[in-house]
Structures are given as C-alpha cells and as structure tokens.
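Data availability (excerpt). The following record was deposited with the supplementary files.
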Amino acid sequence: MPKKKKLSQKQSRMTKKIQASRVERVRKKASTLEQEISESELGPEQEGRLITNYGASVDVEDSNGIIHRCAYRQNLESLVSGDRVVWQPAHDERGVVTAVMERTSLLARPDFTGNKKPVAANIDQMIIVSASKPGLNEGLIDRYLLAAENIHITPVILLNKVDLLDDRTLADYKERLSDYIRIGYPVIYASTKREHGLDALQKTLKEKTSILVGRSGVGKSSLVNRILPDANIKTGEVSEATGKGQHTTSAARLYHLSCGGELIDSPGVREFGLWNLSRDEATYGFIEFRQFIGKCKFSNCTHTHEPQCAIQEAIENEEISPRRVDSYHRIIASLNST
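Predicted structure:
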C-alpha cells in the first residue's frame, strides 16, 4: 500500500481555511434559525434526546417520542446523536436547545484540521463492523478497540456479509479474528440475506445504546434497514474501481429498537484517527498488554528492542499476538507524527 502523502504547509493552511469557512457558514445558518424563533414563543424548559445534527439545526425527541427541528444556542459545544439536552419548544413544533446535560461517554475523532470532532454521546457499546468487501482491516479494528477502551464502553466485533463467503474463506476470516477472541473480545457474524442472520446482533443490541462504526461499504446501513424496516436508509455498494466503500450515511442518527435498546448509525470512514491520546493511554487500550505493563527492565521501554522487555518476552512465550504488537507500534508512530 503506498504511503499517504503528507499535505504541504500551503495545502494544510488552505484546508483549515476551507473548514473554518464551512463552520462559519453553519454557525450563521444556525444563528438565523434561532433568530426566527422569538423568545416570547418559547415554552418551559424540558429534557430531550438529540437524534441527529444537521449542522445548522438538530432534531430533538421529546418525552412523548415526537421529533422537533431545533435551533441551538451558539455558546454550546458540538451537539451529537445520543446527547441528552435541555430545550424549549415553540408553537410550530420547532424549538431551541439551551443546554447539554452531562455525558456518560463521548466518542470523538480528529477532523480534517486535527481538531476534536465528537461523533456520538452516552453510548454503552461500539459495534465494529467489518466485511469481506471492502475487506477486513485489523488496523482499523484495533483503533476502534483502543477508542472504546479509553472511553470505557464495550466493543463488539462484527463480521458482516458472511453469506458471500465459502466455507474455506469464512474459516480464514475466523482464524484472523481469533486473536481478538483469545483476549476476550466478542466476535459475532451477520448476514442480511439469511434467515436468522441477524439473531446474534439483535441479542447483543438488547437494552443497550450502541453505535455502529466501520469503513464505508461494510453494510452498516443495510443492517439498520433489516433491524428497523421503517428506517429506509440509503445503502451503497463497494466501488468496483477503487475497492473502497462509498459513503451513504452523511450524519450520525439515533434509532429506537423494539428490544428496548437504541442504535446510532455513524458515517463510514476509511481511517479512524485517535483524538489526543497519550502513549500510556494507547498502551492501556491494548488490553492483553496490561498484565505486562511496568515489568520491563527500563521504565521508558518502547517495547521494540530493549533487553528484558516484558512485551517482547510475552511474544516469544506466545502470550501476545505479534500482529497486535505491530499494530500497536504503528499507532504509536501515528500519534508521535501528529
């Protein structure tokens, strides 16, 4: 795989300028929408659940399950699906969000300029979706696992589209995923084409607030459409020219499940950057490393070449997967380059 070209300083400045311009346009639209709703029209403050954020406006669900298109105060931080908010209704089923309640968890990643971009809030578990097309990407899975560990939510790995795999290929995928099973991560298999192909997923989603994450083209929207037939989400295919998934979900959205849980479908990404993570947090996020942390001869051990390195000894004793250690070093290198 060719190395990703770094942006020149001029390109970087231009990218930041374009992003800043887009943010400013959204703020102006949001401000205009807020001004359209007179303060005298607003009812008493009440709690609501944020369903999705369109940029200039947000959808908020009230206690009766009715969705209201709302403006929001400009001093609020980024609002995301899953947020519990305080809002005031207007007479025309619109309203204004005035505050964000404390979050129990927040999934975030860097945006194009390297700044923090919240993705979803108040989630219990992350369903990391992969598929044979556009392909299993263990490096991306490791990044999602790392993010889940550091915000203290439960990760679940899901291999989708198993109906496309013959027995030999499926066995190969199961072998590749066995590293995760050995260290305690649940792995489930799904197919939207087979009867009972989603039973394991639906059982996993029950009574929890979950977010579907993964590359574009792995079938997240198709999964939601099968679980929630009324959602009618646009689905896309993997590009024949590039072998990569094509984006279909443009904004994260929260859905209620009949089993009592909630599901947030997030836009697909080809890479998942880690926001403001330290080396120690990255090491902690590799759960099989934890029993060896602090046992190296040198306190500043990089776990690469140093003598009496507990991690390297664990590899030799087949207690840690060499592939996972390689993935760890790639992540550390990416953190050091930002």
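Summary of structural features: The chain has three domains: 9-100, 106-265, 279-336.
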